[in-house]
Write a structure and sequence with these properties.
alpha+beta; 2 domains; 5 strands
């Protein structure tokens, strides 16, 4: 990041905080309003006090100064200013920090609307969480991914790809796809590095899959992209589909995957 870019981000952060502070009514916090207030919303010192922060530190933050920022202090600000999920994510993006609430606060279940949407898609479709557990899928996905989404199998996609013999037969060009999957998964790993469940998942794969254990230390990182996916289905023979992956706005930790 250049000096100019860093300065621009700090300026945007300060302007964002000022605008959000101005929209909050003092009455929400049991504070006196009235004509004696020269500016709308909360005062800087009130935000700082409510968040357990130094007034000087918060003032410098709004002024766009180059000061030390902790993720927990930013989280307290987000709570005081009553940020939505999107506003909180924007705050941490501007500050260049990882939100500690992103892992701990994520809901494990998929929103019901996503599960309903699965049944409206004719091709295979499923929803993954950040650990790549399937939270929902349609009948076409269960039919395609035998050994993963059918029966009483383990619903973790990484376990299926690296530990289930059926995956190597089903996925055409398995080795290349498996290396790509590891590189895609590393992004989720980086976002949830401190989560015990994430560490446990990676350690279980290293211990159980020689291929994963060999490829994981390479530290390849790529974005999850769509494109052609080829399968050697045990009943249908060769199948080629186009994969599309979407991230719901309200739950960016989830992946809505369609094969059309």
């Amino acid at each position: 990041m250049t000096v100019e870019t860093d300065q621009a981000r700090r300026q945007q952060l300060g302007e964002f905080l000022r605008s959000q502070r101005a929209r909050l009514s003092p009455a929400l916090f049991g504070l006196q309003g009235g004509a004696r207030r020269r500016t709308p919303g909360l005062r800087r010192e009130e935000v700082a006090q409510l968040g357990g922060l130094s007034t000087t530190w918060y003032t410098w933050l709004e002024q766009g100064r180059d000061i030390s920022l902790s993720a927990h202090a930013l989280g307290r600000l987000a709570n005081v200013l009553k940020f939505s999920v999107a506003e909180r994510a924007y705050l941490f993006d501007l500050a260049g920090k990882r939100d500690p609430h992103a892992s701990a606060g994520a809901e494990p279940a998929a929103p019901s609307a996503l599960l309903v949407a699965l049944e409206t898609i004719s091709g295979p479709a499923y929803v993954l969480d950040h650990l790549w557990n399937a939270l929902g899928w349609n009948g076409a996905a269960a039919e395609l991914f035998a050994g993963w989404l059918d029966g009483e199998n383990d619903r973790n996609l990484l376990h299926f790809i690296f530990l289930h013999p059926a995956a190597q037969l089903l996925i055409d060009g398995w080795e290349g796809r498996a290396r790509r999957v590891i590189a895609e998964f590393r992004i989720d790993y980086g976002h949830h590095l401190e989560e015990p469940a994430m560490q446990a998942l990676v350690q279980s794969l290293i211990a159980s899959s020689p291929f994963f254990a060999e490829a994981w230390p390479v530290h390849s990182v790529v974005g999850r992209e769509g494109g052609a996916r080829r399968f050697n289905h045990p009943r249908r023979g060769p199948v080629e589909l186009q994969q599309i992956t979407l991230n719901p706005t309200t739950r960016p930790d989830l992946k809505f995957v369609m094969l059309v």
